[in-house]
Design brief:
Blueprint: H1 7-23, E1 29-32, H2 35-41, H3 46-56, E2 64-70, H4 76-79, E3 88-92, H5 102-112, E4 118-123, E5 125-126, E6 131-132, H6 135-151, E7 156-160, H7 169-181
Parallel strand pairs: 1-2, 2-3, 3-4, 4-7
Antiparallel strand pairs: 5-6
Length: about 180
């Protein structure tokens, strides 16, 4: 899958989204998926990223940038200079087998981004194994998410993805029921 992550293209898309948000008020922000990998691939500097961030806010300063950060990317050096341009950290566990370490990963994330709201991303699919997230790990993650919410450690959660519901019925039904019960 090829993504056009060139700074000029991302800046143009950010500016376009900002303009569209004036017509469509349900647009409240943008998400930069796979941010670290794409900025490294394109050798994006913090100064270039500042232009992207400014373009996002050019027509609507209230828009917020959600930055995808994976738990295996929690090296402060990788994010140096980019933190000012991240409004929300969307933290994801890429390898389902790493879910048991989420407590430590969340604390490292909170230390790296102390002034940023953190949203935990929850997969239905374990992409590295090309299979549904094993139920024992899915349940563990959601128990942690509920605890983090109750403790005020995270601002919320996101789920990927509606497109996977039909193929991962057991996971989707369990998540739906867990959310309804809590």
């Amino acid at each position: 899958c090829w993504v056009d992550a060139r700074p000029v293209s991302v800046r143009a898309e950010a500016e376009n989204l900002s303009r569209l948000s004036l017509k469509y008020p349900n647009l409240t922000g943008a998400i930069h998926d796979d941010m670290k990998g794409l900025i490294q691939r394109e050798n994006v500097t913090p100064d270039q990223y500042a232009e992207i961030y400014a373009a996002l806010k050019s027509h609507n300063p209230a828009l917020r940038l959600w930055s995808v950060v994976y738990t295996h990317e929690l090296d402060p050096a990788d994010w140096a200079g980019f933190q000012p341009f991240m409004d929300i950290v969307n933290l994801w566990v890429w390898n389902a087998k790493d879910i048991p370490q989420l407590d430590d990963d969340l604390e490292r994330c909170r230390e790296m981004f102390p002034d940023k709201p953190i949203i935990i991303g929850c997969y239905l699919r374990d992409y590295p194994t090309v299979a549904p997230v094993p139920m024992h790990l899915l349940k563990l993650q959601w128990e942690k998410v509920l605890r983090y919410l109750n403790e005020g450690k995270i601002a919320g959660y996101s789920i990927l993805a509606a497109v996977l519901i039909d193929g991962h019925q057991e996971q989707a039904n369990w998540v739906r029921d867990f959310i309804a019960a809590n």
